[in-house]
Amino acid sequence: MQLQEQVIEEIRKSLDIVDVIGSYVQLKKQGKNYIGLCPFHSERTPSFSVSPDKQLYHCFGCGAGGNLFTFMMEIEGMSFIEAAQSLADRANIDLGSSVTKNNAYRDPNDQKRKQITEGLELLTKFYHYLLTTAKYGSSGMRYLEERGFNSEMIERFRIGYAVDSWEAVTHLLQKRGVSLEFMEHAGLIKKRGFDNKYFDRFRNRIIFPIFNMSGKTVAFGGRTLGEDKPKYLNSPESDVFHKGSILYGFHLARQAIRKSSQVVLLEGYVDVVRAHQAGVTCSVASMGTSLTEAQAAALTRMADTIIICYDSDTAGIEASFRAAELLQGNGKVIKIANMPEGLDPDDYIRKFGGERFKSDVIGASQTLMTFKMNYLRRKRNLSDEGDRLLYIEDVLRELASQHRAVERDHYLRLLSEEFSISLDSLKKQLHQVSVTAERRDKRRARVAPLARSNRIPPAYEMAERRLLARMMRSREISDQVRDTLGGSFTIDVHQALAAYLYAYYAQGNPPDEGLFLQKLEDPALQRKVTELSLMPMSDQADDGEIEDCVKQVIRHSKSSLIADKEEQRKKAEQSGDYELAAQLLSEIISVKKQLGHF
């Protein structure tokens, strides 16, 4: 084994895939494996499986699968080198240059991302140094102290300060040999139109590094100290920063979220820093008020309870409603924190303190249905009879999606008491609304494409899959199949896997699905390996199982051959080539005899 492969194998064997994936996905033990909601597609029923024995994962819904390296590459958008480095850091393994010198693992398009990432890390340290050095950062530190940010939070979130200079950052980047063109793309510097010279984008601002899920700086947010506009200035999206997939503070909140199975969703980075300082360390932010599907999927993977704590103004309430719509329906408990009007979390904590924020805001969060009723009430004039009836219909439509009978009964009684309507009438109306909604859902289901997980493979395909699964677990079975079938698998991806397996064992490698997968470069083949590895099967092959599967594959292969020759024979007869038609008929009879048809 080459030195580079030894290092990769050491990383793979040093980490537990359940721990790594569990920091991104809420996993629950089910038999030998762990299951959760897939992080790569939206789903309501868990189909994502992680095998601690095989150190592999596979989604039976979308087909995603692989090992630790492929997971980090997919979830973080990393190259192989970045994934290896991240996992090596986690395992306390010195990767050095052993991987980057191996051409097999080098991404030719990664230079830009690499330089941007290195530049961001350099500037994170630089801005933090400027803030904490009295000569440069006294005005920035004074502002933070006046706002009540303590030194622990400044260190924890690596807060910095951009001095009031046009060239401090530009000169540093030039001195360190970082590409100014790449840094301009990342939005850290800009170019003047009249002389084409670069200048600093962030000046006289408190700098908040924006981190990705693994804690790497991918962008910056700057809060002005003066009257400059805008008040908050963020880096634009780039090769490493995709705003819609970021949950600010997640890498610092991860442990608290896992421990409490609860996450508090805030609007921006200042609110997160303030909440962590107040002891609400399970807080993250959606980087603005428009929660994306990717962020919503990440939140529902993390915890059983999600508390939305946005501003109390109209925009914040509307955003809370939209976020709740995205988050509900996954069996999670969604709550809405009731912020006093005119205050955001940062204002509230500075005014009333962290303990009151925890007890009177987070602790007193409304249920989702209560919030929706209040939200719908704002849309109607309840002194008007028509609007009252419309409001009741709005609430009943929301209740129709409630699966808990106790909750439906509770809110129906509230409506009955408030509007003096009999409970029976409301129940009948709710039943009609539910039936209508159910019919609509059934119509949608009929026109929806059949899920790939519901497809029942034909017998020959199942035989090929079982053979490959057994071959990956046993060199003896692989040798047996090689001697009887060779490469005569019907399905292309199965044929390719068989060829790779034969070569894998010929090199003296042991039966190890994880190691075999690591040697494959094609993502489609990697996904197929994980799918086959996690197929439910007995530990040992049953008597005659391999022989039966081989016979099934051969039978289908010969049947396909007969069909092809029959088609050729018909064309030969139509064209008047009776000699060729007779020859093809003879070959067809010969193959049929092999199948026992004569």
From TrEMBL:
SMART domains: TOPRIM, ZnF_CHCC. GO terms for molecular function: ATP binding; DNA binding; DNA helicase activity; DNA-directed RNA polymerase activity; zinc ion binding. CDD domains: TOPRIM_DnaG_primases. Keywords: DNA replication, DNA-binding, DNA-directed RNA polymerase, Magnesium, Metal-binding, Nucleotidyltransferase, Primosome, Transcription, Transferase, Zinc, Zinc-finger. Residues 261-342 form the Toprim domain. Monomer. Interacts with DnaB. This is DNA primase. The lineage of its organism: Bacteria, Bacillati, Bacillota, Bacilli, Bacillales.
